[in-house]
């Protein structure tokens, strides 16, 4: 791995061979999220979804990035392998004994390490009968992610990615929270640079081949304010409105970006 003094700090730039070595982790994360999306249904317990992901991690010979994760903002080690955020929860949802109900909006975030390399991805779905407002919210995060990935090319700026997310979100009528966003990915789940979900085009870090980042727009329906649940992890909307979250791990190359967690390849 090439460590470059870059952007005011040390940011890891991967060689083409290292990006190829990251592909199996990306495929695993994509396959787990695909299985979870298919398994999520009315009456399914969040703990059963977590158990399914844990089983797939073990079978792949991989390691969870979440189970021992204990950053400064977490009350304790996370203890599960998935983030399952339901309705007014949008990020870091701690799986618990809850059976999904008709109309629930579920966001699932998952990261794993395979052969020493990490990938990180998230999706949102509605279980059972969907409200149009929820589908629109999910669709906006997906469109923002797609727009950001299009601009994740060498010689563009990090602000181009952030501005694309913000424009799609604001044009749809949503406000944007910048407390949590995307990040560098490599041997560990979270590294530099931070990738905000709002910013100015043409500003910030110059994107270089070998940079691998997770891009993750997330939105709440009628607010951009969040609070931490009493479980010490789950982030919920301040006004009770629903949230959605989309994320992919991508590699910047000399050409088009590589979406390492693309579920179309599963």
Automatic annotation (TrEMBL):
Co-factor: note: Binds 2 divalent metal cations per subunit. Has a high-affinity and a low affinity metal-binding site. The true nature of the physiological cofactor is under debate. The enzyme is active with cobalt, zinc, manganese or divalent iron ions. Most likely, methionine aminopeptidases function as mononuclear Fe(2+)-metalloproteases under physiological conditions, and the catalytically relevant metal-binding site has been assigned to the histidine-containing high-affinity site.
Positions annotated to bind a divalent metal cation 1: 109, 120, 247
GO annotation (BP), single: proteolysis
Any one GO molecular-function label of the UniProt entry: metalloaminopeptidase activity
Positions annotated to bind a divalent metal cation 2: 120, 183, 216, 247
EC number: 3.4.11.18
Peptidase M24 domain mapped to chain residues: 20-254
Cellular component annotations (GO), alphabetically ordered: cytosol
Reactions that this protein is recorded to catalyse: Release of N-terminal amino acids, preferentially methionine, from peptides and arylamides
Cofactor(s) the protein needs: Co(2+); Zn(2+); Mn(2+); Fe(2+)
Residues where substrate binds: 92, 190
Keywords, comma-separated and alphabetical: Aminopeptidase, Hydrolase, Metal-binding, Protease
Enzyme class: hydrolase
Pfam families on file: Peptidase_M24
Highest taxon of source: Bacteria
SUPFAM superfamilies found in the cross-reference section: Creatinase/aminopeptidase
HAMAP family in UniProt: MetAP_1
Function: Removes the N-terminal methionine from nascent proteins. The N-terminal methionine is often cleaved when the second residue in the primary sequence is small and uncharged (Met-Ala-, Cys, Gly, Pro, Ser, Thr, or Val). Requires deformylation of the N(alpha)-formylated initiator methionine before it can be hydrolyzed.
Family according to the record: Belongs to the peptidase M24A family. Methionine aminopeptidase type 1 subfamily.
Subunit note: Monomer.
Protein known as: Methionine aminopeptidase
């Amino acid at each position: 791995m090439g460590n470059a003094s870059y952007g005011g700090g040390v940011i890891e730039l991967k060689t083409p061979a290292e990006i190829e070595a990251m592909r199996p982790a990306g495929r695993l994360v994509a396959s787990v999220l695909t299985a979870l999306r298919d398994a999520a249904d009315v009456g399914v317990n969040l703990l059963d979804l977590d158990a399914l992901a844990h089983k797939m991690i073990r079978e792949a010979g991989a390691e969870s990035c979440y189970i021992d994760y204990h950053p400064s903002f977490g009350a304790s080690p996370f203890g599960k392998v998935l983030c399952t955020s339901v309705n007014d929860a949008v990020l870091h949802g701690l799986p618990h004994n809850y059976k999904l109900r008709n109309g629930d909006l579920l966001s699932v975030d998952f990261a794993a390490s395979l052969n020493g390399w990490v990938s990180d991805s998230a999706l949102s779905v509605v279980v059972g009968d969907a409200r149009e407002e929820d589908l629109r919210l999910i669709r906006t995060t997906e469109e923002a992610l797609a727009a950001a990935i299009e601009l994740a090319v060498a010689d563009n700026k990090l602000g181009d990615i952030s501005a694309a997310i913000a424009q799609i979100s604001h044009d749809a009528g949503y406000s944007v929270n910048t407390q949590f966003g995307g990040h560098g990915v490599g041997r560990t789940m979270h590294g530099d640079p931070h990738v905000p979900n709002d910013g100015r085009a043409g500003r910030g870090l110059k994107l270089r081949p070998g940079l691998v980042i997770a891009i993750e727009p997330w939105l709440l329906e009628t607010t951009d304010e969040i609070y931490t649940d009493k479980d010490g992890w789950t982030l919920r909307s301040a006004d009770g409105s629903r949230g959605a979250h989309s994320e992919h791990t991508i590699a910047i190359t000399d050409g088009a970006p590589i979406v390492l967690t693309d579920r179309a390849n599963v």
